[in-house]
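Tutorial handout. Part one gives the primary structure; part two gives the three-dimensional structure as tokens.
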Amino acid sequence: MNSINNLFRTVKKLSFYIYNNKLDRNYYWEKINLIIPDKSYCNMRWKIDIVNNDGIKICCASAVYEYVLKTFNIKPSNEEMLGNYLTDENLKEECGFFFLQLINIQQKYTCTLLRICQIAFNLGQYQAIYNNYNLSLKDFFTPEINKYYTNNKLNYFYSYINISSCDDDEFFSNLINKIKNLIPIRNNFKKKYLKYKKKYISLKYKNNL
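Part two.
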């Protein structure tokens, strides 16, 4: 179970980095599609166990979706209609899109590894907007929506799926490493590290002659 959780967190970190650095999310999502299998694993199934702000439990994805739309006044947006990153016109729409996707993916798709990673991919971008713009988007990040998000622990993998125990660490480690290799800063850092390590060893060798 920790292995799938680590995969979820890795994808979330990648998407957080992508948004903060204004990279092409569609390009990276296509890359993830080539890495993550769109199939079930270890008897996975969606966990729909939401408590609304009145303390009432909702266990149906479509009912949760309607509740979020009406309660937080979010308008559904098509991803292709969203504009460029970080503009005043589309920032609120983007945030609403990412927030709705957290339940919309569960409503539209069977629970698979790819769809779990899709939730993580949207979640990371939602968090990136919150971290950078929560003060300027007070009309979106209201106490009510923050209460709903926090109380239902929507930041965590375990809030989205029920799953039996998984011990295939090698399988997930391989996926995680492939996802990590998509992050440009990791690749650049690794190249620089190896370059300076080689230089350091060379200088050390010369000094010992």
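Part three, for discussion. Residues 2-207 form one domain. The mean pLDDT is 84.
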